[in-house]
Amino acid sequence: MAEIDRAAALAAAPAELFIGGRWRPARGRAAFEVVDPADESVLRRVADAGPSDASDALDHAVDAAADWAGTVPQRRADILRAAHDGLLRRREEIATLITLEMGKPLAEARGEVDYGAGFFRWFSESASRLHLDGDYGVEPGGQYRIITTKRPVGPTLLITPWNFPLAMGTRKIGAALAAGCPVVIKPAEQTPLTMLLLAEVLREAGLPDGVLGVLTTTDAAGLVQPMIADPRLRKISFTGSTRVGKLLLGQAAEGVLRSSMELGGNAPLLVFDDADIDAAVDGATVAKLRNGGESCVAANRIYVQSGVLEEFTGKLTERLAAVRTGSGLDPDTGLGPMIDARQRDKVAELVDDAVERGAELLLGGKVPGGPGYFYPPTVLRAIPADAELRTEEIFGPVAAIYPFDTEEQAIGAANDTRFGLASYVFTKDLSRAMRVAEALDSGMTGVNRGVVSNPAAAFGGIKESGLGREGSSEGIEEYLETKYIGLQL
Ligand code: SIN
Q1: CA 412 and chain centroid, separation
Q2: Is 141 exposed, middle or buried (0-12, 13-18, 19+ CB in 10 A)?
């Protein structure tokens, strides 16, 4: 596997705004620093967009909307497929960039490139079939014909998080472009470089000018609010915290914007006495440590039945103790740095709070010295009822273990949250697996596996975890509206 060095990966990423099919600096030439979370060094300076840049990008999207909606689906499919191929051709470059700005180990970053490219492939296939969908019928009185078809929602604002800088972009962009919507995307301030390189890949794949705008900024609210208030914008799709999602929904209500929200989680992972314990430890390790725990589907609460509590806890602790923390570019690293000092400190505070209230710390729990935003794999048990991490999304490499005795108890505890994104069940009893999976209040449940993410599967949550689904056949529907035509013959 050809490894790309740091300098080459950084040089590949554009550092300007992508508006109207060309690269340009922010008006006023403002720029901000992108920092390597592994050593706190400055990676690049990128353009810092303001409201007038946003309005320029929206103008271009509006101008491009009719042509893009009228572009035959096969052509839209070809562009997405070419972008998929482009991402895989530049896999090493993009993976290195993800590791540099986000921190995850290179092997995981490569996995993200494959996962992210998979959305373009998936939605290129959806685009080809789009115009085959629809209904033709006669109204019940026999007077006229009812034709039902779909059309794109229109110009769309996409807001993506820092934890999967590529895949959370392709998951939204792929669906929107396949449906025929032009988009303006605002990536997270911490990880703009991957999105800028993705724009270049889409440009090379033949995406017409104006159909995609990329605005990197340090002033998310100042940029996004006027866009949402502009009646020409017809949709918003956001991945991030429930707190910000609620604010955006409030703003979107004013213009009755179609809204897709992929928000916070508090995923329970249930291990029953009859589980294959080694498989459960494998599953819990990946559900906890994938992306360093910085994922909304990360196992936040691990419930273990009393008969296997000691065995499971011992094996999971041993497994996590063997994980090496370090720079994601080092091939031996299993856990990279956290995204920034704020996130690292928040995790440390949650752990300290639990320990102060009487939780037992079995592993980790101490911020190491030196540069970089590292936090070690950590295991806690005997966590008191008033510890904050019972209800808060940890978003870090902290395994919080809780005991239970009965199935009813486990389901009750798992569902006792305002979130409902992912959940996981480990048991060898198929009836129990299905019974519990059906009883868990979450949009997704992994049975005997710790990863649920797949472009072909419907990703999304219930309760305060969000609205709508991404990926699968449902993902494209988020960018389409139904049009009915009554035809008198
Ligand atoms: C997320 O954490 O927001 C998404 C994770 C995934 O797609 O697996």
Answers
A1: 27
A2: exposed
φ/ψ of 468, rounded to 5, equals 90, 175
Minimum-distance ligand 1 atom for the alpha carbon of 453: 8
DSSP string covering 59-113: HHHHHHHHHHHHS-HHHHHHHHHHHHHHHHHTHHHHHHHHHHHH---HHHHHHHH
Confidence of residue 306 (pLDDT cuts 50, 70, 90): very high
Ligand 1 probe mutation, 98, 170, 291, 294, most atoms within 8 A of CB = 291
What is the SS3 assignment for 186?
strand
Best mutation site among 295, 442, 454 for ligand 1 pocket (most ligand atoms within 8 Å of CB) = 295
Percent of the chain having pLDDT more than 90? 97
Rounded distance from Cα 297 to ligand 1 centre (Å):
6
**Alpha helices (runs of H) in 191-308, residue ranges in sequence order:** 192-204, 220-229, 242-254, 277-289
Which residue's CA is the nearest one to ligand 1's atom 6? 453
- 406 C-alpha to ligand 1 centroid (Å): 30
Q: Name the DSSP letter for residue 274.
A: T
Beta-sheet pairing, 212-214 with 235-239: unpaired
Q: What is the pLDDT of residues 341-384, one digit of tens each?
A: 999 999 999 999 999 999 999 999 999 998 999 999 999 999 99
Q: Is the CB of 164 under 6 A from ligand 1?
A: yes
pTM as predicted: 0.97
Tokens of 229: 């208030």
Tens of pLDDT along 39-70? 999 999 999 999 999 999 999 999 999 999 99
CA of 291 to the centre of ligand 1 (A): 9
Domains detected in the chain:
6-262+466-487 (3.40.605.10), 267-453 (3.40.309.10)
Query: Could you give the CA distance from residue 261 to residue 265 in angstroms, rounded to a whole number?
Result: 12
Question: What mean pLDDT do residues 259-272 have?
Answer: 98
Q: How far is the CA of 164 from the centre of ligand 1 (A)?
A: 7
What is the Å distance from ligand 1's center to 116 Cα? 11
Question: What residues are labeled active site?
Answer: 262, 296
The minimum-distance atom of ligand 1 relative to the CA of 451 is 8
* Res 128: pLDDT: 84
Contact 153, 483 (CB under 8 A): no
CA–CA separation, 285 and 380 (whole Å): 14
Predicted pLDDT at 3: 59
For ligand 1, whether the C-beta of 296 sits within 6 Å is yes
pLDDT at 2 over 50: no
CB 169 within 8 A of CB 162: no
pLDDT tens per residue, range 99-119: 999 999 999 999 999 999 999
Is residue 158 within 8 Å of 237, Cβ to Cβ? yes
Residue type at 223 in one-letter notation: L
If you take atom 2 of ligand 1, which residue's CA is the nearest one?
Answer: 295
